[in-house]
Specification:
Keywords: Methyltransferase, S-adenosyl-L-methionine, Transferase. The chain is of the alpha/beta class. It is built from eight helices and seven strands. Helices cover about 40% and strands about 20% of the residues.
């Protein structure tokens, strides 16, 4: 599928799904206007998928690794029990803290969201589990570390989502750089990991959906 066909497909897909809240539209607009890496934002289609998975799972506790500007966290929060549910989201970029905190405070989930700034590998062990739903979308070179850390803090039936597993199609290329090889190797490990059930979805940059046995 060429770029034009892909854009037409994405436009059609977005026409068939539910609209997003004013706050999510604001976050998307301001991210694309002010952030050099705006492509990291989940966006309308993937955001609705995250929301749907969360609502289907009805998680009590969610963990997100890689907050960026908070869009995906708010989508995942839509499936939480508003009275008792918790979403913990971690990002290492303290320059985004004030902006993202403002978005969370403006949302209906402000009392459910706990925003952590720092190294996820150090923070994850300090957050009480178990997690029912996990979204890993941070530095790709540590995906395997994050996966092992969160697998220890989940019960059977928990869902783990890992983003960017197609890496802009580079996993199919004959010539692969170091990062692409790391992602491909990790994908192959997950494909043969008997602790989980798995399916990869060709959504945006690829989303691995894992279920702990």
């Amino acid at each position: 599928m060429n770029l034009l066909e892909n854009n037409i497909l994405n436009e059609y897909l977005e026409q068939t799904i539910d609209p997003v809240s004013h706050l999510l539209s604001q976050i998307e607009r301001e991210t694309y206007l002010t952030k050099a890496q705006s492509h990291m934002l989940s966006g309308h289609y993937q955001g609705r998928l995250l929301s749907m998975i969360s609502k289907m799972k009805s998680p009590h506790k969610i963990l997100e690794i890689g907050t960026f500007t908070g869009y995906s966290a708010l989508c995942l929060a839509e499936g939480l029990d508003r009275q008792q549910g918790e979403l913990h989201t971690i990002d290492i970029n303290d320059e985004l803290e004030e902006q993202v905190t403002g978005y969370f405070e403006s949302s209906e989930y402000k009392s459910n969201i706990h925003f952590h700034i720092g190294d996820a590998a150090e923070i994850i062990p300090t957050i009480p589990g178990p997690f029912d739903l996990v979204f890993i979308d941070a530095d790709k070179k540590r995906n395997e570390l994050y996966f092992e850390l969160v697998l220890e803090k989940t019960n059977p039936g928990a869902i783990i989502l890992i983003d960017n597993v197609l890496w802009k199609g580079k996993v199919f290329a004959d010539m692969q750089d170091k990062r692409t090889k790391e992602i491909l190797n990790f994908n192959n490990k997950l494909a043969t990991d008997h602790r989980i059930e798995k399916v990869m979805l060709p959504v945006r940059d690829g989303l691995f959906v894992l279920r702990k046995k």
